[in-house]
Specification:
Blueprint (H helix, E strand, L loop, with lengths): L3 H24 L21 E8 L31 E4 L1 H4 L8 E5 L11 E8 L9 E5 H6 L6 H5 L4 E8 L9 E4 L7 E7 L7 E7 L7 E2 L1 E4 L2 E5 L8 E7 L5 E8 L8 E3 L11
Parallel strand pairs: 1-5, 2-4
Antiparallel strand pairs: 1-6, 2-5, 3-4, 3-6, 7-8, 7-15, 8-12, 9-10, 9-13, 11-12, 13-14
Protein name: Expansin-B2
C-alpha cells in the first residue's frame, strides 16, 4: 500500500500537470478565462416552473421541418440530426427574447395526463412561436420531443391531448463532447461575414460575438442578424484566418475560437472549433 505522503505527491503532480495544460490553452487563446455573472447551470439545483405545452410539425419530426427547415434560429437541417436529434422546441416570446435564447436548453415534463411519464426531456430552443402568449411561458415542441414525454407506447395518445400543462427548468446543454461549430451563411463574402453558431455546451445561449481577421489585430463586434445568425458588415476586405470570440448570455463566460475560419473558406461550409464552454482555464 502506498504511503499517505506518496499519494499526496502523486496527486500534486497530477494537479500541476492539469494546471500547466490549462495555462497552455489560455496562452494559445484556445479558450479564455472568465468571471461568471451567474451560477453554473450544471451545478445549481433544478428550478421548475409551469408553462403551456403543444407540438407542431410531423409526429416524429423536428417541428419546423414541415414549414421551413430549422426554424427561426437558423440551424437549418441540423435540428433533425445529432446531437439535436429532433429534441427541439419553439418558444413563446417571453423566453425567446428576440432570438437571444436560441441554443438554450430546458428540461420539460408533464404529469397531469394519463399518458405522461413524468420523466423530463432535454430540449433545445431552435424556433419561435410568436402567437404562444396565452400563458406566461409556452413550449411548442417538436413532435419527437412531445412524444418523448409520454409513457413508452402512448406517444400518440399524448399528442392527441392538445394543450398540456408542462413543467420546465433551465439546464445546461450537453452535446457529448462536441466543440462549437460555425456554419457560414450563404450570403457571406470577403467584405461581409455571417455565421450560425452551433453546439454551445453548458449555457447554450450567446450575448455577443466578436470577429478578428488575420491582419487587423482588432476585435470587431458582430451584430445579431436573426436567431442564431450573427453578422459583420466590415466595409472592407476581411483577411483570413478569422478568429471568433463568444460571450455567453447566461453566465458571461467568454472563450476564443482562434483562426477557426481558414484561408479559402466557403459560404455554406461548416467549420468546427477546438473549444467549448466545458473547457475551463485556471489562472
Amino acid at each position: 500500500m502506498a504511503s499517505s505522503s506518496s499519494i499526496v505527491s502523486v496527486n500534486n503532480g497530477l494537479l500541476s500537470v492539469s494546471l500547466l495544460v490549462s495555462l497552455l490553452f489560455c496562452y494559445l487563446e484556445l479558450c479564455s478565462c472568465f468571471h461568471p455573472k451567474h451560477l453554473n447551470l450544471s451545478v445549481i439545483g433544478t428550478r421548475w416552473s409551469s408553462a403551456g405545452g403543444t407540438w407542431y410539425g410531423s409526429p416524429d419530426g423536428a417541428g419546423s421541418d414541415v414549414m421551413y427547415a430549422g426554424g427561426s434560429c437558423g440551424y437549418g437541417t441540423a435540428v433533425s440530426q445529432r446531437p439535436f436529434s429532433s429534441l427541439v422546441t419553439a418558444i413563446g416570446p417571453s423566453l425567446y427574447n428576440s432570438g437571444k435564447e436560441c441554443g438554450a436548453c430546458y428540461q420539460v415534463k408533464c404529469t397531469k395526463h394519463p399518458a405522461c411519464s413524468g420523466k423530463p426531456v432535454r430540449v433545445v430552443i431552435t424556433d419561435s412561436c410568436p402567437g404562444c402568449v396565452t400563458e406566461s411561458a409556452h413550449f411548442d415542441l417538436s413532435g419527437t420531443a412531445f412524444g418523448a414525454m409520454a409513457i413508452p407506447g402512448q406517444e400518440q395518445k399524448l399528442r392527441d391531448a392538445g394543450v398540456l400543462e408542462v413543467r420546465y427548468a433551465r439546464v445546461a446543454c450537453d452535446y457529448s463532447g462536441k466543440t462549437i461549430a460555425f456554419h457560414v451563411d450563404q450570403g457571406s463574402n470577403p467584405n461581409y461575414f455571417a455565421v450560425v453558431v452551433e453546439f454551445e455546451e453548458g449555457d447554450g445561449d450567446l450575448a455577443g460575438i466578436y470577429l478578428m481577421d488575420g491582419t487587423s489585430g482588432k476585435w470587431e463586434a458582430m451584430q445579431q442578424s436573426w436567431g442564431a445568425v450573427w453578422k459583420l458588415d466590415a466595409g472592407r476586405e476581411l483577411h483570413p484566418p478569422l478568429s471568433i470570440r463568444l460571450t455567453s448570455q447566461y453566465s458571461g463566460k467568454t472563450l476564443v475560437a482562434k483562426n477557426v475560419i481558414p484561408d479559402g473558406w466557403k459560404p455554406g461550409a461548416t467549420y468546427r472549433s477546438l473549444v467549448n464552454y466545458n473547457v475551463k482555464c485556471y489562472l
